[in-house]
Design goal:
By secondary structure, this protein is mainly α. It contains 18 helices and 6 strands. It binds arginine.
């Protein structure tokens, strides 16, 4: 793309031309061209508002709006011209409008600045972007619900410190990844609301001197309210930070899901098998089956953190009002959005096609997983929990010394550990009984998990969730 300051939106005041080293630095079209739809949409609304307020004749406003409609059609069919000489998307749209309506195009920017214009465009984009991300998240969530269905009958080790802790249903594990994403989806809804405050009508810094109805303009563009202070409005990027923070949390959550997928699909665990469609081989080692989908998802989180850090750094200590530093917000937010839109559908597909390996999971269940249940058995028979804990500790040690499982210890061993034991202690050695005992809401019994899944389904939108 070649560009110069010829035809720039601010040429009148300057005699000399822009230094060649400054030209590419000044350019933002390569990034902000993505806002063309929002720029056209905002400009059509602005033209109409100027007409309604009789700042420009109604017919002129209508002609400009029609011209912008034709610019939209042209960009829709031809795309952004690769040789566009414009500094940014705002300059490009105004130039194309000139090609449609001639000198009338010069009236569009009345009372408006690129400062309130770009802030408006980006918020319009943000409102749509959050909706798309919410829909992508719902896709992963639906895949997790299906995985949970497939894991309802499977009892697996539940881990703490990556050491076997207590048995859980595999469905419970799958659902443990659903809820963080549900919080993310709700959070994105709040970010959408944060973006939905209209800056247009703030001008460059001091507001607009023409009697524009900003509330009507907001309603026209789908904003729920208008900004209260023009100086704040042109430089407020709080919602960008909120979107990036929400994106980082999505990244953290998918990276943790990804890590479980990596771990559980190893030869050592073998709890899960990822489908061929989401695995890759090695160019050297013929046997390899690598969980690249999960590793790439995990790795992408770095970029998300980078985007958030970048915007926080840009905003910190900026003087009041618009500063050109703010132009950098777009690279960060687009990159985070693009990363998630790549990652989430692939993760959804990997989860949807992953298969539990019940045999391997069953073989991994060690008797010690029931140590807490043994202590609970003693508690039910009146032994204080601390004493019960110690008694079971002794049993675990004894089994370890003998190189056997706890359930293989003799009745005499049990009696020696605590006089609270009776022969029915053998009933405790049942993984299903253990999970069924955790029947409070949020627990891992069949009923509790089913209730959890009903709540999860009810939380998800019907269809693709894009409104
Ligand atoms: N490309 C600019 C941005 O993204 C548009 C606003 C330019 N404003 C200005 N005063 N130079 O922030």
């Amino acid at each position: 793309m070649t560009t110069s300051d010829k035809g720039a939106l601010w040429g009148g005041r300057f005699e000399g031309s822009m230094d060649p080293t400054m030209v590419p630095l000044n350019l933002s079209l390569d990034i902000d061209h993505r806002l063309w739809r929002e720029d056209v949409q905002g400009s059509i609304a602005w033209a109409r508002a100027l007409g309604e307020a009789a700042v420009i004749p109604e017919e002129a406003a209508a002609e400009i709006a029609d011209g912008l409609g034709r610019v939209r059609q042209r960009l829709e069919s031809e795309g952004i011209p690769s040789d566009a000489p414009d500094e940014d998307i705002h300059a490009l749209i105004e130039r194309l409008l000139g090609e449609e309506v001639g000198v009338l195009a010069k009236r569009l920017h009345t009372g408006r600045s690129r400062n309130d214009q770009v802030a408006t465009d980006l918020r319009l984009w943000g409102m749509k972007a959050t909706g798309l991300l919410e829909a992508d998240l719902a896709g992963v969530q639906r895949a997790l619900l299906d995985l949970a269905d497939r894991g309802m009958e499977i009892v697996m080790p539940g881990y703490t410190h990556l050491q076997q802790g207590q048995p859980i249903r595999a469905a419970h594990w799958a659902m443990s990844h659903f809820w963080p994403l549900e919080r993310d989806r709700v959070r994105l809804g709040r970010v959408k609301a944060a973006a939905g405050v209209l800056p247009l009508g703030s001008g460059a810094v001091a507001g607009c001197p023409f009697p524009i109805d900003r509330r009507a303009l907001a309603a026209d563009l789908g904003f729920h309210s208008i900004s209260e202070n023009s100086l704040d409005a042109v430089s407020d990027r709080d919602w960008v930070v909120e979107l990036l923070s929400a994106a980082v949390l999505v990244g953290l959550h998918t990276s943790r899901l990804a890590e479980d997928l990596v771990l559980f699909s190893t030869k050592e665990f073998g709890f899960l098998r990822l489908s061929d469609g989401f695995s890759t081989g090695s160019s050297l080692m013929p046997q390899k089956r690598n969980p690249d989908v999960a590793e790439l998802a995990r790795g992408r989180t770095g970029r998300l953190v980078g985007s958030l850090t970048s915007v926080l750094t840009i905003l910190k200590g900026l003087p009041t009002g618009y500063n050109r530093d703010l132009q950098e917000d777009k690279a960060a937010i687009f990159q985070a959005f693009d990363s998630l839109r790549l990652v989430l559908p692939a993760v959804a597909g990997a989860v949807a096609t992953a298969e539990f390996q019940p045999g391997r999971i069953h073989d991994a269940l060690a008797g010690e997983l029931l140590a807490t249940d043994l202590a609970d058995y003693l508690v039910r028979r009146g032994v204080p929990f601390r004493d019960a804990h110690e008694a079971i500790g002794h049993l675990v040690r004894r089994a370890e010394e003998r190189g056997c499982a706890i359930e293989d210890l003799s009745d005499a061993d049990f009696e020696r550990a605590s006089d609270g034991f009776d022969t029915d202690v053998r009933d405790v050695f049942d993984m299903t009984a253990s999970v069924e005992a955790r029947d409070l809401p949020g627990g891992t019994s069949r009923r509790a998990v089913e209730e959890q899944m009903i709540a999860a389904r009810a939380a998800l939108p019907d269809g693709d969730g894009i409104d």
